[in-house]
Amino acid sequence: EAGVTQFPSHSVIEKGQTVTLRCDPISGHDNLYWYRRVMGKEIKFLLHFVKESKQDESGMPNNRFLAERTGGTYSTLKVQPAELEDSGVYFCASSSRSGGTSLREQFFGPGTRLTVL
Amino acid sequence: GQQLNQSPQSMFIQEGEDVSMNCTSSSIFNTWLWYKQDPGEGPVLLIALYKAGELTSNGRLTAQFGTTRKDSFLNISASIPSDVGIYFCAGRNTGKLIFGQGTTLQVKP
Hints:
Chain A is mainly beta.
């Protein structure tokens, strides 16, 4: 079974540009999460989709960030316009709503390292 | 908001030594989780704890869910070089995970 995949693995952009990150969750997982880790700090929650609906977007930093999950499959996270403080590693995770307790935990993708110059 | 304090921030140990790290919170969590992150990879779940006082092992790893539900610890016995990485604790009440700052572990052969 394929794990969570993220694209691109790295992105280097200039301040003011737009970047779109993509996440493909594990097939059949209804829950999809976005997290971000800024250098040396903790991994912070951004938002949570259940299928195509935003369940919790309390962690989104500001309105420069837009997340979508059309059709309830893959998700995109767009940053427009990017600022220096947006640099960090963006992780996507997915989980199932069925199965044993450990199977319902979140499985993480490898992350997208975003550098804003 | 909720925060987890994870310590130590980093450890540099000799192969074969035991390691202990812990997380504390001012808030109660229903679930405590321990993840490990290797360079260039995402966090991988090591152990999940669901009941206060629960002690769970996974090979050389042992973790406990504190009785107050505000803390957890992770022990690694007889460390080996592949234990190198960043270890994160995480607490959960609803869907989102609240992470600690991470413990960077380095093992000297």
